[in-house]
Amino acid sequence: RCLLKILLVFGTRPAAIKMAPVVKALKNSGKFEVVVCVSAQHRQMLDSVLEVFEIKPDYDLDIMKPGQDLFDITTEVLIRFKPVLIQEKPDCVLVQGDTSTAISASLSAFYSKIPVGHIEAGLRTYQHDSPWPEELNRQIVGRIAKYHFAPTELSKRHLLSENLNFPNILITGNT
């Protein structure tokens, strides 16, 4: 295999909107083998965005269930994402933002010794409960990630102040 294999993981409408241009750019570059996995943390809202952007996931974890909570989302992504990692053996897993899907997929990749790239890295309030649970999710993903794609100079400064891997922080703008 000559191309780097990039596995993108997302599961909510906002994450899909922000990841769609990344999926398209990576596929159009011809430099990467691109695999898309959705958790379907928000099934109907996710599906409408996938349709608009004409993205057909290679894997659908289909975790949404009535009355789900953060425990359900976290454990289901951890359990259902493991076989995808084993099957695909990606060179990097890309996650976006601060969702429970992002933190769970990052942790799964970490357990599998696969580097993580964090899109929209470095956003911070530094208040664990504001917004809750997103603020802590993004900080944990930041600790796990090897590559940090920060939308702004301020986001980059946040990462630097946390002693996060300077050579691997790139200001990309907001997708």
Structural class, by secondary structure, is alpha/beta
| Rg calc | 15 Å
Mean pLDDT: 95
Regions with pLDDT < 50 over 5+ consecutive residues?
none
Give the proportion of residues in helices.
40-55%
Q: Return the string of H and E elements.
A: EHEHEHEHEHEHE
User: What is the tally of beta strands?
Assistant: 7
Q: Biggest β-sheet, characterized?
A: 7 strands, parallel
Sum up the overall morphology in one term: globular
Multimeric organization = single chain
Beta percentage is: 15-25%
Instruction: Give the distance, in angstroms, between the N- and C-terminal Cα atoms.
Output: 29 Å
Biggest sheet: strand arrangement: 3-2-1-4-5-6-7
By DSSP (H or I, 4+ residues per run), the number of helices equals: 6
Write a short abstract of this structure:
With 175 residues, the chain is an alpha/beta fold. The protein is 45% helix and 18% strand.
Q: Could you characterize the architecture of this molecule?
A:
By secondary structure, the chain is of the alpha/beta class. The protein has six helices and seven strands. The protein has helices spanning 13-29, 43-52, 70-88, 100-111, 134-144, 153-161, and strands spanning 4-10, 32-38, 59-60, 92-96, 116-119, 147-150, 169-171. β6, α6 (153-161) and β7 (169-171) form a beta-alpha-beta unit. α4 packs parallel to α5 (134-144). The longest helix has 19 residues, at 70-88. It is globular and about 35 Å long.
